[in-house]
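**Polypeptide and fold**
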Amino acid sequence: MEMISTRAIRAHYDRLSFFYRTFWGEHIHHGFWKNGESPRQAQLNLVKELADRAHIERGGNVLDVGCGFGASAIWLAQELRCSITGITISPVQKRMAERRAQQLELNDRVWFQVADANKLRFPAASFDAVWVIECSEHLFDKQQFIRQCGRLLRSGGVLALSSWLSGAAGRHNHQLISEICSGMLCPSLATFAEYQSWMIESGFQVVYAKQITSRVAKTWDVCEAILERPIVRICWPLLGRQTRAFTRQFSAMRRGFASGALGYGMFAARKK
């Protein structure tokens, strides 16, 4: 496995974006299952749940950190009439997101740029909300990132974040988390308590914090099923060493959720 670096993370998403969108859809994140929804509906459920818990205001100015193909940004623009700036580390993702926004005639409310979320360069108090779905896992200093989110928000603005978590302690679990971090290009995973502590230290009031692991864990059953599709099995030898190593972590993710080594948290925090 290549060394974890910003360059490696960018290369991963540049290399795999076509496959992500083909086999996993417009949203590159976990699903949130309430009943028997399809995987794509479950992914949309996660977006709606986070928007509801964070009380994202209609017409607000939102920064989407780790915007992927722009699916969350587009949903926020369509459903809540928000203006969105989406940032991604991947030039490939930026182009795909821009194409989709143009198809939907949303160019007047949704903009995308290539930027490193480790170094947020926007002016202070620029946004009403910062939206972060499964991006902070890839960041090198998560505490500093939360501080920067506070700097970018206006007073009363909200940080809406969902993230993989490091769960129960123990030698076996530590080994499994290390394996997942290496395979999934995560410098580290933070705990549920750490995220809340960093938010409070950064001047936020945490208005919602919940571990929703049981609602999202099915994601990795779906991912493993995708690997069994005939077209994927045919393409498997062509995917390259790094990609094959990445997909081997799907079973580790499933084991992590099942054992408690890995969790999933959703947070909403308002700047005081």
Summary: The domain at 6-271 is CATH 3.40.50.150 (Rossmann fold). The chain has a mean pLDDT of 94. The two ends are 42 Å apart (CA to CA).
